[in-house]
Automatic annotation (TrEMBL):
Residue span, Tyr recombinase domain: 152-315
GO molecular function: DNA binding
Higher taxonomy: Bacteria, Thermotogati, Deinococcota, Deinococci, Deinococcales
Keywords assigned: DNA integration, DNA recombination, DNA-binding
Protein name (record): Integrase
Stretches assigned to coiled coil: none
BP term (GO), one: DNA integration
Entry-linked InterPro entries: CB (IPR044068), DNA_brk_join_enz (IPR011010), Integrase-like_cat_sf (IPR013762), Integrase_catalytic (IPR002104), Integrase_recombinase_N (IPR010998), Integrase_SAM-like_N (IPR004107), Tyrosine_recombinase_XerCD (IPR050090)
PROSITE patterns associated with the record: CB, TYR_RECOMBINASE
Domain annotation Core-binding (CB): ranges: 45-129
A Pfam entry, by short name: Phage_integrase
Cross-referenced Gene3D superfamilies: 1.10.150.130, Intergrase catalytic core
Length: 316
């Protein structure tokens, strides 16, 4: 569920320039995180590059970042509309040294989480400039060090866990897992699948940013999805939300003896990308299959063996 009501953001977007500036100045001067989140939502959905197609996931991530930054700024003596030139770097340093919170996790924030928080706060300042409240860009020169450990190493693809877990799934849960692990769908894409999306052994996907792609379904996936009766008049094959689907798959992994191996649905998508790359040796084709706009993104989804070129260099 989104952290901001769309009506709040739309109401702010419909204000006159003068009224919007007044609200922005008021929110910043009182460190009103809720109003600043609504203002950022309004900016993202009406004035950013993606506009109304900005995903709810992105909006929620930015909202969490602002909820973290605003109290820090207040306690650190940062004036939101007139921050010091070093305040962006101070916040990044604080993020890198603070302990993670919630979800039973311990240790420092990951580099990807730090980058996500900083992206959210940068969006906040773009929103404040959009509202005419400031020209400040405190994070323009703030450097966010990348994680030296590749994502494919931190969260590698599932291997034998997929087939083992499938033995403990009912027909509908099996179809969901296969859509992610064999057809390479994102979990939100899989959960939104309808019977009308499937035709002639292919599935039509409405992906991130409104992009549409057609994905071929292997025999195993075809058999799994075409035998499922729809659950709604619209033809929806699933009625679970993300958390309900996660609970069911975690349970299947535990039953299969791989409870400690559960790493979310993205590892299933990487399983698909890695298997397809092994068969084709072509990142471009894998990227098209997964719906990536950049091959550089695809490389982060494929686990390549350390000795992958050993045979090629043998006779150099």
């Amino acid at each position: 569920m989104t952290l901001v009501r769309a009506s709040d953001a739309l109401a702010l977007s419909n204000l006159t320039d003068a009224a919007l500036r007044v609200r922005a100045v008021e929110a910043a001067s009182t460190y009103d995180a809720a109003l600043l989140i609504s203002m950022t939502h309004g900016y993202m959905t009406t004035a950013s590059r993606k506009g109304a197609r900005t995903s709810v996931k992105t909006l929620d991530a930015y909202a969490l970042a602002i909820k973290d930054y605003v109290p820090w700024a207040r306690d650190a003596g940062v004036t939101l509309l007139h921050p010091g030139r070093r305040d962006g770097g101070r916040y990044v340093a604080w993020l890198q040294t603070r302990e993670t919170q919630g979800n039973g996790k311990r240790g420092k924030l990951s580099a990807s989480t730090v980058a996500q928080y900083v992206a959210g706060v940068r969006a906040l300042y773009r929103a404040l400039r959009w509202a005419g409240a400031t020209e400040a860009q405190p994070f323009e020169d703030a450097h966010v060090p990348p994680d030296p450990t590749p994502g494919i190493v931190k969260n590698p693809p599932y291997r034998q866990e997929i087939d083992a877990a499938l033995e403990h799934c009912d027909a509908r849960l099996s179809a969901l897992l296969l859509l992610c692990a064999h057809a390479g769908l994102r979990i939100t894409e899989a959960l939104n699948t309808t019977t009308g999306d499937i035709s002639a052994g292919r599935i039509r996907i409405h992906g991130k940013g409104g992009k549409v792609r057609v994905v071929p379904l292997g025999k195993r996936v075809r058999e799994a999805v075409t035998t499922l009766p729809p659950l709604t008049p619209e033809g929806n094959l699933f009625q679970w939300d993300y958390h309900q689907a996660t609970y069911r798959l975690q349970k299947a992994f535990r039953a299969a003896g791989h409870g400690d191996a559960w790493r979310g649905f993205h590892a299933a998508r990487k399983h698909s990308g890695t298997r397809l790359y092994t068969a084709t040796r072509d990142f471009t084709r894998v990227g098209l299959f997964l719906g990536h706009s950049s091959v550089d993104t695809t490389r982060r989804y494929v686990a390549v063996q350390d000795d992958d070129v050993a045979g090629d260099v043998e006779n150099f």
